[in-house]
Fold each of these.
Amino acid sequence: MATSSSSVEFKIPTHNVKTVLLENLLKCPVCGSDFSLKPDNILCAKNHSFPHRGNVIDFSSVDKIDHLQTRSQESFGVEWTQYYADLGWSPKELPVETEMFLTYTRAMPNFFSNNIVIDAGCGNGRYINVVNSISSPPPRLIIGIDLADSIFVAAKNCSKFRNVVFLKVNLNLLPQILEEPVDYIYSIGVLHHTPDAKASFESLVKCVKRKGFISLYLYGKGNALLYRVNSLLRNRFFRRWPHKLVYCLVFLIAIPCQLFRIPFFGPWMLDFITRFVFISYDVHNMFDAYTAGYTSFHEREEIEDWYRSNGFDCVVESQLNHTALYGIGRKI
């Protein structure tokens, strides 16, 4: 079944997306054999079976995750199913989401046109909506990856698209699942919540074809004091709290933070305070930041080395007092 990546041709608009994906891109993560599509599951040639429903193929049973990953899986499930299932999906939000997406990825819209794209950590699917909106023609196929149950929310939100399919799986398993490398992978705010961000990056880059791209958004360390405060609050303190309690706290913190919206004075005050501790007038950003099981922080030179040691040219930019890293690399 496997062919060279240059010879694979997908015709997603006129075929069932899952069928095309199974016939061309997927292999069994347990034994490496081919799949066939059944009414309620997918079945490999050696009878390994995985559920599929609502345009989601579920590989989550393949590997066990540790308690930190479980906490992250639960926190992002709560975030995108209970609190922010519709965030970014209204027409008035699309321009803001598009600007954020292009800022995070450092991509041009035509990078996605007629290509196979992976959203590694798709949340509620809002950036899949962006990619399909900005590229003409749209991608041949977008594969949304997530381990949390929010992937079913993403599938529902993206039900209007015919070129999208979802895999519920640990992103580190992607090299074991894909028959062929893809054209573009983006991962926005995800790898720094995995137990080993570098190892996760190296799993993803194995799935990028030659001259393909991978874009990352990662947390930067900021200054030494902010790094220590962030590490303490995110990795030792808040992860022990129930999600509802964290949500209530960040909601209360966000109320006085509305002062940061005042022209001139507000941004200056926000810039000053966030050199010592991360707070925001945006409840979602704080909840997202403080509920994961683990959070790592990185430096620009470190991420550049990740790219280059894996055969990529890259541009990595440090922004927002060195607390945000935006990177894009092309496989040589």
Note: The chain has a mean pLDDT of 92.
Amino acid sequence: MSTKKKIAVVTPVFPPYRGGIGTVAYHYARLLASRGQEVTVYAPDYGHGDPEPVPGARVTLLKPAVRYGNAAWISNLGTKLAFFDTVILMYPFFGSMRQVYLGRKKGKYRLVLVYNMDVVGSGLKGLIFAYATKYFLPKILRASDVVHASSEDYAQHSKLSTFWKKGSGCEVLPLGVDVQRFSPGSVPDSLYEILRIPRDKKIVLFVGGLDPAHYFKGVHHLITSARHLDSMSTHVVIAGRGSLIEHYQKQSSDEQVADRITFTGGVTDDQLVSLYRAASVTVLPSVDQSESFGIVLVESMACGTPVVTSDLPGVRAVYEHDVSGICVPVGDVEKLAEAIQRITTNESLRQAMSEAARTRALEKYDWEKIGDALLTKM
């Protein structure tokens, strides 16, 4: 595609806030800008500081008139979008999706909807989610020119399934990874000094947000599983920041596994790569379909580190069970521990899975290949 288009990426969150939706928005903007498109990202200004710059693109934070968590109503968003050829909406974005929908209904732009996840909740939040899913989701899906899902598995087992029909604007476009940056390599001694654990320990790694918005990551299950792991040979490392970190630290103490777990807090990009390289296995024990893919999985696999995850649609499709990772029942702490032990105690198996993981990342999750496919949908 040689024609230069004006493209807006509309997202509820954006780096430096850590989370899958913001990361996808960043890379969509980066990939399209590097392919000659005029790209602007619009995200709410939550007062967290400057957004991470995107090479070749503009990132504009707009003050929300109303906000609740990661939901925000931006009163002037519709006016901003009227001047674009294509709008990419990161779904869900409560508070601002309707303005995108109304602009598309008026025929002002082409709409590409990226279906990141089902919305799951309880209480009042659950009622709001249920209402939006039943009454608004069908409308915005029908108004969209293209709908992207990260896997066929998730599309067929999520709230998207009723509307999913490949070939009618519904397309699978997996999330990706920079396979040059995230790659196998050596681990500096300084990492082990920071972690305060010996180099011969088998690291069981979790990477993710530790805030209420990421309740579904299942960190509490990983902490409990540490009781079933060999404390002499393995050590759990939980990398991420958020307001729940003290809650998880207390759980670790209450369950008498605090000496087996290190909480790193936030890590730099270089430290993250080193953590993947140092780990024997990366674990994603998510609890519900708010988890649809798991970018940390492809980052880990690209570094040659096998994965263990919950048996959830989309997540289980990222890797091949018993080849590049292991799938366990949701919430089954003992099965989770068994899978971790299986990898950490069998070096030949771990090495075979490592090679398979790296190969799969190169074949399916290279952002540059994904960027070429993305451009054709604009």
Note: The chain is about 35% helix and 20% strand.
